[in-house]
Each structure stands twice: as structure tokens, then as C-alpha cells.
């Protein structure tokens, strides 16, 4: 597969591994946060760990829109399907995530709610067209990558007059989340100091460009490399970060030049700006309330806003007790630091979103590396 | 996050739709988020929408840099300039 | 047996399952017409089979696939192949199948006819008869077109002893061909996931190839068809049952390019995707080449490959050297396989 | 085998059918717990059975009953009894069963547990194991709680040759007890037809009684269990297959008073109502008393009766002397059995 | 079962058979019409034929409400379920009856219409209570026996305010149908002369009493015996008719005194009169348009009248061609006179209602006596 | 037509409902169409409603007449008068 297979080549991986081994200074540690779950997934699925020296460490960030959605929003989605009787369309990723009382959309569906997995907002629009007598709500989740397709669907619904379609908007923004990790001292005062650089989100930057991450270098003096999601992309980006650190440079570099430019996709940005506006603040699992970190549907498009169309009840939503997802999402703990990992919490009985999302750190450790993790836990 | 994959545009349709080939798999997608998509372009496909064009030349350059990873110091800087990025502080 | 072509213009209703004449006619017009054989013609609810002497094997599988018709097969051929393969995986020579149908009210007779015809064809090609059957009709909304449960009986040849207890560290793990074709063929026909490209299910009967394998190497330790849950489920189940480990090489595992692409598109791991015409064979290392040659002589095993070996430990874990040379655990699929965006 | 009691508070979802660990756990926690036996514990999709020598019999039946639980049984015990009886009707000694489950999303685990427990009990009482099984889950609205397809394998003793070809004019028609209990027990639990009085299904395994019958009179011509479609369907099928007639005496056919009353109330003919623990035996006239005595020695055949005889003709017709001494044809049930007001 | 088993006694049957044999004059024929399908059913199920001399003949009348409902009314019922999307509740008897193009309610159900079998109007009301968001229509069919339960359901729906319940009324009356057979010459001029007497409907008379049949004796000089439905009731009634004929009496006698009185059930009659009114005329399969022979729901209860609530389309309804049901229902032909009997037309593939209703003459001949019937057909 | 069956009233309930025994089968029915139904009455049950009471005495008389069918001429006339029927023409 063009632009994929080449970036999984074993010989090139060896070359990069050798270069990293040479570049990495054995006298120090390199702690790089991969903001994105996509990077986490690639690192684990391909065993990138095994090709970098032990002093090059990956710190997993909050870049999984499934993981950071708080239980309350999921409970709201279930309420839409169960109490308001809508057809709730969701990407497959959300179906197994536990809300309050570990109840997921999949369980709500088994109990009779009309919940449909879609691959695209295009399919959700088709469902709305095919069921004019029913309310169809699309559960919008995702970062800047996934937001334009939601915006396009709302624009299309308005153009066609699809009156039974709306979006329950949970779209969030990456730069404010990264800033929050570095800036808000109560999160973890030592964290900012510990991080030596960032692997920047590549598909987010396909839309917003690399420019929005320049503040990281400029204001927080953290090197950034916008990194592709294939394993060789990750390795090359690691090499680029090591070199920045070694050379004392602090720049936003772009490894993923085949897709990312500094400006991104202006057309998509404009569409998003037309349909959505900033929420003053939004609750992130792990990060708490983060100002200016999420989008809401503009008043002009209120007819397509599920939060305006349906009265959502007050809830006593609760995350699962003693789940360490919040700390893991901030990068201050690892899955092995959660005493539920591999015991009460497995992908079949997930206690937190980090275990259920394929991009979650706990799921990655479980699926691809639980041997080492369980051994470390036993040793501690 | 954000599973996305390169797709080759094989046909353009009304309503900003296009046929693409994803490694030999034919699929209908929306190109409403991109201007001036042409048959033969590679685009980055995410949840049924093309998000950006994929640059063949840049891909080749990236692979070449990987192959010469050991010798790359100079080129990294060059690459950063070419793409108008690397507006770092430091 | 040449019966006049019946009228297939209508659809199933509750009377077809009522136990009366309408049902008898349905069985005659559709099932007997396509599946006629001396055993079925005994006209018994239970059919006698001459097993000769020896050990027999039995198996059963309920087939609930949607869509019912897919590139490379349909629920009928699948139900035959699946059960033949389960017998073959015990090293057994299949003697006979049984087939029980649960049909939803409103299901078109023409579709049922097509399915029964496909079963008949699959049985004839396999040389194994459906010995007896059963038909039930459920109300609309209490079924999904048609479900078919096939069971099978076979004879296990002397000297063949296949099972996870026979696994030992050092044994070779062979795979008969590329994985994921069936699961992706099915997904590609599901609403909202359609592909324009035809990926064909690998659904096929493997008992002839297995007969040759067993004849060539009677001491095969394990045969298993990696169906639901894919190769990862099969290997994890075996590793768990044997208390041994496994080490795979990702690059040695054949996956068709289109299947790989579809998996990338949908965020699936081909190791978790279902197959219906593939087998995993675990044998002593010295028998591996013999068995690969036997497999490759059959169209079903043309692309057979050695994909790894059994290890002492970690017990119950399947590990894999990744494409780039790293290591990972190969886990069971968690829950249902869902396409994803992240 | 003592496993800890599993958590049964949840309900089935799609992951239970996905082929992964959730399914493996479900099988362990519910099916293996209740059905454990050395054959099933082989852990194979296809299970080996030592059949010794001799002819074997196979059978299959899909069970789709609603309600799932009814007086005198449930779908689990029914699925065991039905298949054991089909083997017994071939004169076979049952060796093993297989069970395939199709479960609807949302089905309560506790109910599934109850059903599996009931199957386990029925198997133990019958002395016949479930040798292998299969589990599929279908989406809500594509099933009806649970469907169970059971298949069976048995050995036919030397000298036993049962089948409609053996029918001859003059043979006696025996019935093992009162008819209609099962069908009426089920109807009495259907919405809108409820009775306050409990009529219990006759669901029972008949293979032990049949073994004694076959031992006493190896030359029995036909054994048949009058299930769906009732006694009328069974006798019409036999008369049709043999090209002979039958003559019954209505007053000789046992029907429990409550069952007769329920049939009057709903406008049904008890001859068309399903049974699940009864058999029809056709034998030479001189063997009739011997067989009746054997049957009456079993609780399942306590009320066995001679109800008629085989006639030369009219070919394919079952006739009956009515209660008042008139004559009528006993026809197959037409379509589904529907309560009526006229 | 009390009041049932005693009336199926073989010894008493022999006594009655002997008395009939003695009473019947071998020099003449006795042609008695049993108006009711219930009698037809009893005669065939118990083989009453075999216990009476060959010159005592049963002529089957139109007394089966399923058989006489014309295709048009059934097509309307299917339209209610399919086009108007109602829950259509029907007694089991109607489900298999073929309408135009041999389409039945059962087929409509298999094709997705929401058609439910009920045992009682009480169940139809329960369905309406349980589905307040759906329209529930009860398909009312039947003679005077079955009409009061429909009336009671409407009265109950009004009292409770069950607004989603209505009745598609097809209730018909027996006396006008009998009169029609005797009076309308174009039906069959010879018919009236040929009939020597009537077995009168017993359960109808439980409601309306025997008085409404007195016109038969008084105006048409036809003996009538109101006859119970058990086989001994039928035999005793035959004996009573033979004696009337032999003695030249023309009376309305009542064999079924354990239930029927001259006046019937006044309370039921009053309720029926409150809810229903006469239709000027109604189409009967076989009889054509019969004046004053059916009931409609009064304007006061229009809210419960499905014909008023739902617009039923004009239709080209057609009975099955060459089905002889019409002539059989008038008593002028027998099933053996239909060339489809036992060939194209069987209970599994009924071409006419007489084959599908358990009370239909064709079904009775097929189910209980097809040996003789097919032999006669072959001989002719 | 009109399948109906004798039922023994075993209990009376609100809303003109009653429990009956139909040859040993318990069933809930409506007695709204009859006045003054009492426990112990036999009623004729049709589609869930009691249509009329069943007279034990008349049933006995009918059976007695059947038993003496050969001798019955006189009694037929008597019966007709007793029930106030037989208002025939002739
Ligand atoms: S292992 Fe489970 S409980 Fe622990 S942090 Fe991860 S998701 Fe939460
Ligand atoms: S046999 Fe069939 S077609 Fe002929 S009259 Fe009877 S119902 Fe009509
Ligand atoms: Mg069977
Ligand atoms: Mg299988
Ligand atoms: Mg069967
Ligand atoms: Mg369905
Ligand atoms: Mg298998
Ligand atoms: Mg199996
Ligand atoms: Mg059976
Ligand atoms: Mg299986
Ligand atoms: Mg259902
Ligand atoms: Mg049977």
C-alpha cells in the first residue's frame, strides 16, 4: 500500500535504530510525550520500544478523544438514545467505553436502545434520510481531524433541509490541552520540567497545520516534531527530537512533510469556524476543566445541535473509582501504576476509557506489552 | 488518534464526492473539504472525507532521509526551511 | 431423482414451520431437491450411517451470517465448509452432515432455494452428504433471514491423535494461506462499510487436504481452523490450553494486499479477522517442509507458510516479531470486532 | 469440576459472540459449568467418540420455542429430549449430543444459565453427554431469546431395522400415552391464551423405554415421536411413505381431560397438537401386548394404548372411527395451528 | 367435560341412529339445511352421515362468517394494516382467508404488517392499552353470537377513553340470510322447494332467542329445529325434523333447551342495539347484496369505527375465478361440484374461503371426508 | 359457527369479570353480557364472554329424551309447549 508499506520497512527501521542509538546520549534520559494515541498505538503495535535505547522514554499524552471524554458526556449520549428515543449514531470507538456504573453504549443497545455504528458522518446523514420519522443524533467526538467531517455533515443537512439530524458535539482541541499540561501547576508541578519534547499530532496538523504548535517552542521552550503515524515516522521523529535536545535547539520541526504544511487545510478550517465556536471551557477526563479547549455548535445552527434540541437531565455521573486514567492521561502515571490493570481491568471488563479505546495507553500496554508490564508490577 | 490513510483519487462525482482506491480497495468518499482535487491525486482519507493532499515528492524525500539517517544533520535544517516551518524560538 | 421444478415465487410464512403438509412440501421442493442422497432419502428424523469400526468425531456450528450472500459464498456453502473443516481439524474423515434451518417469516423462497442449492453443490464437491435435517420458521422480527446449524460426524483414522495436549516447545506453526479474506468479504457488504472492490471469502472445505496431510504425517500435533476471532484467537486458545508460548514472525504471515488495505481503512488487525478456508497446523519441526509441500499441492493450501514456532514460555502468550523487528504480544480480540476511527 | 460461581447479573451483548475472550468466558462460566463431561472437556470443535463397531444414527433439531420456560420443562430440557427421542425412534442407543446456541443480544445471563442447567440435568438423567457445542449471538430483533439446535449420534443395535418400509397391513398401532400435553402447555403460556390451570408438557426422554422395547421385540416395524403437527402428522407421514392406510379408534386414544377441555376452548383437534414425550409404535399384532406391557412398566409409557391398526388402503389415508361411531379421515394439520372462534 | 362429553356418547348415538332409521321414510328424501358451519363441522368431525340413512341429506348453508366475507372487506383489512400502519387484531379464523390475488392476512403479516391474533376483544383492548402511540383496529366478524363481545369492547373503550381503539365492523345477521336463500328467485328458483327443513343456529339463538326464526315456519312453511352443536344434538334435531316432515307439522322446535329460550339474552341484545345499527345492505360472498343483513357502528360511536377513522381506497377486489364457494354457500352446489376441489384448492393452497375456514363446507369435505368426495368426483 | 363451550363460574371479580373452569381449565372471562351471574352457574363461553346460562335441568331432560328416542313422540310436543316455543304455522 503506497505511503504505508514503505514506512514499515525493517531495513530502514534498523538504519534509524542505529542512528538513534548513536545520537542518544547514554548519560541522560530523553522523555518525549507523544500527545496522540495514534502514536501510542504505532509504538506498541510495532514494538518501537525494542528499537530505541532504554533511556529514550515515551510518555503517553491525552491525545485520545475517546479516553478524555468524561463519563457525564457519555451518560448524556445514552440518555439521548434511551429517554429521547433517538437513533444515536456513533463511531465504533465509543461503543464499549464505560460511563457511570460501567454502562456503555453497547450495553444500552443490548437493552434496546437504537444505537448504530457508523463509519462516517455521511452514513449518519443517510440514516437520517432513510428515517424521516425518527430523530437521528450523531455523537461527534474527535480532535481537529474529525471535526471538519462533522461540520460538513451539518452544512449538508442544512443545505438539504434534513430536519431530523443533529450532532451531539464533543469535539475538542489539541493545543489548549498541551498547554494545560505544561501550565497548570496543580496538575503536576514536576511534569513540565520532566518532558524533553513532544511528538506532535500529524493528522490534526493535516487540518490545522503546524503553526498552532509553535507556541510550545516559543513559550515553553519544548522541542516539537510533527510526526507521522507509521513506525518509521515515529522513529525518525524521535531521532529529530534527540538531535534538537542534544544540540539545544527548540524548534517546531515537521517530519510528516508529505501531508502537513505550516498552514494546514484552510477550507476545512473555514468550514469549522462557520459551524462551530469555542466553548468557554470543557471538562476533560484527567485534565479537569480546560478553558477554550472544545467546540460548540454556533447559535445559527442550533437546529442541528442535539444539546439544544433535547433536554438533558442533571446527572450524578461518576468515573470508575480507583481508575488511574486521569493521571495516565496527564502523563504522570503509567498503566502499571494502576492496581486494577490486568486484574479487575482488562479490555473485556474495562474500568476506564484508557483500557477500552484502542488508542488508550492501558489498552496498548495490555494488548501489546502486558508481559513486561505485569512483570514490572509484580517486581514493584 | 485519527486513523487516516492515503487514498488515490480515481474518479470525481457530483456533490463533492469521489471514488478512491485505498490500496486496491474502491471506496466512495467526500472531497468537500478540499479544493481542486484531481484524478490521480493521493489524499489523506479520514472517516469518509479527504483531509489533505499527500505529496509524492515529500514522501520520497522523507524515505531518502531515513535511508541516510546517519548523515542527516544538514538536511534536517534544509528540510525545515523548504517547508516554511521550523519557526522555533530557542 | 428428477422432481418437477416447484413454484418459487412466494415467500415463507408460518405455515411452512407448522409441521403439516405445507412444511412437507417445502422440504420436498427445496431441501430434498437439492440435497437428495440415499441417507436423506431414508426419510427419517434420525438417519443410520454405516461407520464401519473406529472412533467417530462429531461437531456442530450455528451459522448466523449477514449478509447471507457474499463474494465467494453464501450461508449455505459456508455452513457445509465450516462443519467439514471442524471435522477435518480433528483429523477425521467426514461421513455425514446434518442441517437445521431457522427461517424468518417473509424470507423469499427463491433465496432459500439458492442457499439450499449452494449447500447441495458444496456437499457434492466435498463428497459428504447431509444425512438429516430440520426446519423451523420464526415470526418476522425474531430471526434474520435464515440461520443454519450444521453438525457433522466423521471417522478418525487409526494412529491420528490431534489435540493441544500434543503441543511441545520447538514445534513449527504452519498456516495454509493468507488470512482475513472471509471477515473482510463480509464486512465489505455491510451497510455503511461497502467497498467497490470484490474481496472474496476464502470459504472452502479442507478435509481432502487434511486427509493428505494426515496420511503424510500421521503425527500432526494440532490442526485448527482460525475462524471467528481469527488467527489470534486460535493461537491464544492453543497456547492457553497447552500452557506453552508461541513466537510468530509478522512478515511470514500471508495477508492479501486488498485485505491489508481494508484492515488499514477500518482500523482492524488482520490477525483478528475471520477465515473460513484456512488452517493452522502445528507439527514437529522436521515435518514442516513435508506438510508445506502437501498443502501447496492443494489449491486451498497454495500459499501455505511457516509462520512461527511453539516456545516454552511465556506460558499462554503468543508473541510476534513485528514488521520493523520489534516485539509485541498477539492478544485475543476484545469483544466484537468494530471498525474504528482512532 | 468445581469452578467458582460466576457473576450472572448482566446480560448478553455482541461481544459474547465475537470469538474472543468474552465468549470463551461465557462458555466456561455457563456451558462448561453445567455440561462438563469428558467428551466436551476435550475442548475441540469436533469431538471424538468411541462408537465401537456397528451402524450409527445421526439426527438434528432446531428448537425455537416461545415461551422458553413452560410448565414441565424449558427449551434446554426440550432440546435434549427431542434429539434423544429422534435417535430412539431409529432404534438407536444415543451416544452423544451436540448443542448450538443462537442467542439474542440482551438475553439475561441468568436465564441462559437456567437453560444450560436444565440441559445438563436432562443429559445426566438420560446418561448421554453433550459432546461439543457452538455459540452465536445475534443482534436484538434478529432472534427470540435463544434458539438451540441439538444434534445426536447413536448406535443402532444389530437386528434392529426400523422404518416405514417395514409397515404391513394388519400391524398394530400403539401410542405410549395421552396426547397434546406439550402443545397445550405451550399455548397456555402464550399472551392472550393464558390458562390459570397448569398443564405440564410431557417433554421426556424415551430412549430407555425404547431400549427395553427393542430388546423385547427387535422386529418393531416403526417408532416415531408425534411432535410438531401431532399424531395426525406422524401417522399421515407414515401412511404416505408406506402406501398403506390406517384405521384408528378415537375412543382408544388417550387425552387428558384438561387437554381435551383446552382444545375445545380453542377450537383445536388434539390429534394435531404437539407432544414431546410420546411415541407411536407399529408392530405385528401378536407383539402388541408384549410391547404395551414393556411401555407400561416405564413412567413415560404408563398409559400406553393400542389405538388402531394398519390397513391395505385407502393408500396414504388415516381413517378413524369417531366417538359416536361414525367415520372420518384424520388429516394433516393445515398450516400453523391457530386458535379459532368458529 | 360437563355438557359436552354426555352429548358425544356412542350408545346414545346408536339409540338415536336406530330411531332415525325407523322414522325416516325410505320412500322419500329429506334435505335439511344446516345454516351453521358449526353444524357442518360437527356432522363431519363425528361422521354423523354414517349414522343416518342415505336419504337423509345435509345441505350446507352460508352460516360461516369467515366464508361469506367478500374479498373486498378482507382487502380493506389488509389495507388498514399495510397502508395505515395500524395494529390489526383478528380472530385466528380470518388469518388464512385469501383476498384478492389470494393474499391473506397471514401473508401480509409475513410481508411486515403488524397483524395480531387475538382470542377475544378483551385482548384487543389490552393491546390498545399497551400501545397508546399506535392505532389498534379489531377486525369484527361474526353473527349475532360474536357481535355482543364487539359491542362490549366499544362500550368499554368509550368508558375508559381508549382513544386508539376502533372496530372494522363486519358483523352480519342470520335471519335475513336465510330469508334471502328462500326468497330471492335469481339465487336458485328450485332451492326453496327442495329444502325440507332447517337445523337452526344454536349459539346465535343463545343471544337472539328462537323467536327470530319463527317467520321461517310462519311465512315459508319450513320446519325448523334450533339444534345444539354436539353430534347427539344434531342427531336428535334431525330426528325431530324428520318427525315434523312425516307428520306434516311446520314448527320452530328447540332441541337446545339447555341454553336457548324464545327470547334469548335481552341484555346482550340491548347493548348491540345501543352500539350498532342496520346497514341498508351488505355484500355476502355467495348471496350477493342482502338488504338489512349486517350491522354498522352508530354515529354516536363513530370514534370507534375504523371505517370512519381511516380512508379506505377504492379497490378492484376479486374472488378467485372458478371457485364455487358462492354456489356452495347458497346450498345449491357441493364441494365435489367444484373442479378445483382437492386439485388446485386444498387447505394449504385455498382458493376460496370455504376451504380455509374450519367451518367451510369444502374444508369439512376435505378434512374429514375427502376419500368419498374424490371417489364421487372421479365417478362423475 | 360460533365456537362456544360451557364454563363453571368459580369466582366473581370487579369490572364484570369472572373466573371460570372450563372442564378443569381456569380462565378469566367477562360476564358483562349477563345479569346476576353467581358462583356455581354454568355459562356458555364464547370469545371470552359469557353469553347465556346453561340449564342443568334442561340438559338432563334432553339426555333423557335421547335415551328414549324411540318412544318420544308425545314428549316432543310437551317439550315444545313447556319452553313456550313451537309457535309454528302449518
Ligand atoms: S488499567 Fe483500567 S482502571 Fe487502571 S487506569 Fe487503565 S483504564 Fe483505568
Ligand atoms: S374447493 Fe376451493 S375453489 Fe372450490 S369451491 Fe371450495 S373453496 Fe372454492
Ligand atoms: Mg431430527
Ligand atoms: Mg467452526
Ligand atoms: Mg425435526
Ligand atoms: Mg429481522
Ligand atoms: Mg473450528
Ligand atoms: Mg464446531
Ligand atoms: Mg424431532
Ligand atoms: Mg463453533
Ligand atoms: Mg425479538
Ligand atoms: Mg421426531
From TrEMBL, chains A, E:
Gene Ontology biological process terms in this record: protein maturation
Keywords of the record: Iron, Metal-binding
Keyword Repeat: no
GO molecular function: 4 iron, 4 sulfur cluster binding; carbon monoxide binding; iron ion binding
Matching Gene3D superfamilies: 6.10.20.100, HypD, alpha/beta domain 1 (3.40.50.11750)
Signal peptide coordinates: none
InterPro entries: Hyd_form_HypD, HypD_1, HypD_2_sf
Keyword Chloroplast tagged: no
Entry's family note: Belongs to the HypD family.
Name assigned to this protein: Hydrogenase maturation factor
Origin organism lineage: Bacteria, Pseudomonadati, Pseudomonadota, Alphaproteobacteria, Rhodospirillales
Automatic annotation (TrEMBL), chains B, F:
UniProt cross-references to InterPro entries, sorted A to Z: Hydrogenase_HupF/HypC (IPR001109)
Transmembrane segments: none
Role played: Involved in the maturation of [NiFe] hydrogenases. Involved in the biosynthesis of the Fe(CN)(2)CO cofactor.
Protein name: Hydrogenase maturation factor HypC
GO terms for biological process, alphabetical: protein maturation
Residue ranges the record marks as coiled coil: none
Family: Belongs to the HupF/HypC family.
Pfam families, per the entry: HupF_HypC
A molecular-function term among this protein's GO annotations: carbon dioxide binding
TrEMBL record, chains C, D:
Residues covered by the PurM-like C-terminal domain: 168-315
Protein name per Swiss-Prot or TrEMBL: Hydrogenase expression/formation protein HypE
PurM-like N-terminal domain: residues covered: 44-156
Ranges annotated as spanning the membrane: none
Family membership: Belongs to the HypE family.
GO process annotations (BP): protein maturation
Organism: Nitrospirillum iridis
PANTHER family in UniProt: CARBAMOYL DEHYDRATASE HYPE, HYDROGENASE ISOENZYMES FORMATION PROTEIN HYPE
